């Protein structure tokens, strides 16, 4: 047995006393601030140029930055760019990067990085494709200067490279941006306000971002995607909950700070909790889409597509998927209702919402009973409900339907397949676009290019001609007339079913401050008072 004498005890005390005093003299290290978020979907695809999925776009905004950005007035403001000039003939654009831009690996952001990034984005995005159709050259003049030479004046240069949503022209290091645009990148280095922690990423469970201590935000106040991106927490965790009730309980108990997209039937429960704020964060709302695969039977026939669209009564979709009428409205324009290009040309095909009319229209086609494979994302309540409503309506008009359940991340991978159904292909999926994404004809959702267009691959040369005319028009009245022709053509070819305009509320603890009102959920400027 170890025996301690009085002398041993006094000696130990003599050593311990100065250590204790020293510890008291050093200030306690501040506790790491953490924002815990339930995202709207699982993050599986990390390349926001390869996919238009919004969860990948949100990931992109966490770690990348953009040359320009859209503000709350729907105007484009500089972000990574400091100054720019345009020649008198409007064909030469010169952009100079601002000081202090640095990638997460410590390397400075250079003009050559921006050039490579824009070229990759331009191969996948609808507005990017149209812009690059008139770009004769895009080169880095020096480390901070990029020069864009156009073959003709183009009215949407800044609107294109400053677009707020998918696909966003995020700036990556040149070595990464040179990846084939139709293959996914495998390295995730940006220059944005947060740094992706790949070693902590658990697909289906957790994504972690740390504050980028080297990020230099702009001095302007935040407004939509523009202005100062100030990271006010040290760490952001995305914690994926497949079960919505479990997710709600985590928010109520305080384990979670922010719930991006709660199921509509849970909203009333959270509204009754005094510690939770429920509100609509997106002033433009979302547009529901039922997307056909134009390549495969039966929807390789425009008349079959239009017959299916005639059965799609918006009130039925909105009631089933959204519920409370204060969060939705019917909208028969392909451009969001209440925005400048809103119109009703050819909209009768969607406004009908008639099973009898759709049944008659289908009977007049050559539909032969070919099964319709509908991909149903069960982890996103709104889209899951859309899928089931469509399945019921198509059966009612005489179609054979095969609903295949999966999670959203699996759907976003599978929808890229052009294979026959028996080899993993598909016939329909449902999604939504935020209003800011489909505000004009240049959205890839409206593309008629089957090679570089959106999943579903509509093929219509006349539609593409109208979209090109819109991009080169400079008169607002001319643009509005062309937009109406784009809408007319989209409905005539049965490009997609439009299911209504809706607004999804967010829910968060009342100790969360600084939320930015925007069509896209941003996590800079947010603080958590614990």
SSE map:
Layout (H helix, E strand, L loop, with lengths): L5 H20 L8 E5 L15 H10 L1 E2 L1 E3 L5 E3 L2 E6 L5 E6 L13 H14 L1 H7 L2 E6 L4 E6 L6 H5 L8 E2 L2 H4 L16 E3 L9 E6 L23 E5 L4 H10 L4 E2 L7 H5 L4 E5 L5 E7 L9 H9 L3 H8 L6 E2 L18 H4 L3 H9 L8 E6 L3 H16 L4 E6 L1 H7 L13 E7 L26 H12 L3 H17 L3 E7 L2 E5 L2 E2 L13 E2 L2
Parallel strand pairs: 1-12, 1-13, 17-18, 17-19
Antiparallel strand pairs: 2-9, 3-4, 5-6, 6-8, 7-8, 10-11, 11-12, 13-21, 14-21, 15-19, 15-20, 16-20, 22-23
Can you put this structure into words, describing what you see?
This protein has 530 residues and is an alpha+beta fold. The chain folds into 3 domains: 137 residues, Dipeptide-binding Protein, domain 1 (Alpha-Beta Complex); 102 residues, D-Maltodextrin-Binding Protein, domain 2, CATH 3.40.190; 217 residues, Dipeptide-binding Protein, domain 3 (Roll), CATH 3.10.105. Helix content is 30%, strand content 20%. β7 and β8 form a beta hairpin. α9 runs antiparallel to α12, α10 runs antiparallel to α13 and α15 packs antiparallel against α16. The radius of gyration is 26 Å and the shape is globular. The N terminus is likely disordered.
